[in-house]
Amino acid sequence: MKKTNTHILIAALAMGMCITLVPVIAEDENPPYTDTTYWNNLCSGTSLTSDQQTACSAYLQYIQGQNSSLQQQISDAQSRKDAASEQLSSVQSQISDLNYQISEINSSIEDLNNQIAEAEQQSALIAQQISDTKVQIQQKTDDIAALKEKVKKRMEKQQETMRTNQILDVLLGAKSFSEMITIANGLSDISQYDSHTLQQLQDETDQLNQMEADLQSQESELEQLQSDLESGKAVLAQQQAELVTASSSLYAAQASYQAQLSSAQSDLNSASAALSANQAAQSSVQNGISSSKANSASSSSSSDSGSSSSDSGSSSSSDSSSSSSSSSSSSSNTTPSSGNSGGNPYYGGWSNCTWSAWQLVHDAIGISLPRWGNAGEWLANAAASGYSTGSSPRANSLIVWGWHVGYVTAVDGDNIYVKEGNYLGSYREGWLASWRKGSIIGYIYL
């Protein structure tokens, strides 16, 4: 009796140990759906329990709801991008127009500056001519005054000394008639010369006065032109300042719309990337649920077939059980044997990825790997042990993440077929989901 109780106790302990390998996670113990790494890893498996399938179906609905939200975000971001792009295009067109107007005004101001400079040069020249003319006029005026004074004095002297009889004496004193004529003409020439000289000086003075008047008129016109040019320049400068102010406002608006456009583009990229990741996760989860249901149905059918054979009266129930077990093992997702695990340096069974990787390699190709520590240490420790490592997958290699390790049995282009145990305490195999490829740190070639 005591021995029987001991056997019962050992069986109970063994059953308890098996149960720990496949923990049942209560609904309130599940992490939130925002922990996408957990849920994507769980739901992409092909051996989900009924409870896990139910949980993953709820997660799938969550993903689909997120997709609708992300699509709305993409639509909103695209609308904001289009509006900002349209506003930016309008502002840039206005800036281009203003810059053209500013360029035209600058050109006009430059022309005015040239005209003002030329007018100032002409004014200076005319001013010099006026100054020179005034000097000449003064000189002629002085000459006229001097000549008038000289003639006046000579005439007064002649009136005092030269009476008629004296003139007669001079004339009569001539030795010949021709000499007398010459003397008489000489006295007349003196008077005519003085008169002619005075008239000539007066004419020159009048010309100079007219020249001065003309120059002063030109000077006045140039001064008026300068004034008009300066006024036009002031108006253009005011217009230029207004355009520059408007241009500055437009440049500020341009910067604002460019920032809005950049923000909308960033939001659009983020939402699009999130949607792509969600759609990939959705596909993986749907495949996991569908495969798990198919595998469950297949296992149930095999189990029913075995039970039927046993109930039909087979002479050896042990042979029927063996046949059923053989039929079940033919499934691609059937947990492989771990009977030859005596040399496995790890513990934990299928709930330990390092234990399962060691065991899978040992069972498949007969290699007993050394103990390389935690999963994230395998790549470096394998290289230190002399194993080749790299970044490209190969059949019969170990795939390593920072927290996980698995056994690669086949590679088809970008597709990788992996066998692995996981922290849920179950074995799984299948083509690796695309979302899991991004965090791979390398491969160990066996």
Architecture overview:
Residues 286-339 have a biased composition (Low complexity). The protein has two domains: 52-291, Helix Hairpins, CATH 1.10.287; 353-445, Alpha-Beta Complex (endopeptidase fold (from Nostoc punctiforme)), CATH 3.90.1720. It has helices spanning 2-21, 36-43, 50-161, 164-172, 177-311, 317-329, 353-365, 378-384; strands at 388-390, 397-401, 405-412, 415-421, 427-431, 440-445. Helix 3 runs antiparallel to helix 5 (177-311) and helix 5 runs antiparallel to helix 6 (317-329). The protein is built from eight helices and six strands. A hairpin with a 5-residue loop joins strand 4 (415-421) and strand 5. A six-stranded antiparallel beta sheet has the order 1-6-2-3-4-5. 71% of the residues lie in helices and 8% in strands. The chain is of the alpha+beta class and 446 residues long.
Reconstruct the topology from this structure.
Elements: H1 2-21, H2 36-43, H3 50-161, H4 164-172, H5 177-311, H6 317-329, H7 353-365, H8 378-384, E1 388-390, E2 397-401, E3 405-412, E4 415-421, E5 427-431, E6 440-445
Antiparallel strand pairs: 1-6, 2-3, 2-6, 3-4, 4-5
Protein traits:
446 residues, alpha+beta, six-stranded antiparallel β-sheet, 6 strands, 71% helix, disordered N terminus
Summarize the structure.
It holds the Pfam family CC_PcsB. The chain has 446 residues and is of the alpha+beta class.
CATH architecture of the largest domain: Orthogonal Bundle
According to CATH, the fold-level topology of the largest domain is Helix Hairpins
Radius of gyration, CA atoms, in whole angstroms: 60 Å
How many DSSP helices? 8
Keywords: Coiled coil, Signal
InterPro entries: CHAP_dom, Papain-like_cys_pep_sf, PcsB-like, PcsB_CC
Protein name: CHAP domain-containing protein
Region (Disordered): 286-341
